[in-house]
Amino acid sequence: MTTTTVLRTADELHARVRTGRRAVVMTMGALHEGHATLIRTAREIAGDGEVVVTVFVNPLQFGAGEDLDRYPRTLDADVKIAERTGADTVFAPSVDEVYPGGEPQVRISAGPMGERLEGSTRPGHFDGMLTVVAKLLHLTRPDMALFGQKDAQQLALIRRMVRDLNFGVEIVGVPTVREADGLALSSRNRYLSATERRTALALSQALFAGSDRHAAQEALRARAREVPATHARAEALSAIGESRAAADTHAVAKAVPGGPAAVRAAARLVLDDAARLNPPLALDYLALVDPSDFTEIPDDHTGEAVLAVAARVGTTRLIDNIPLTFGAAS
Question: What is the pTM of this model?
Answer without folding.
Answer: 0.85
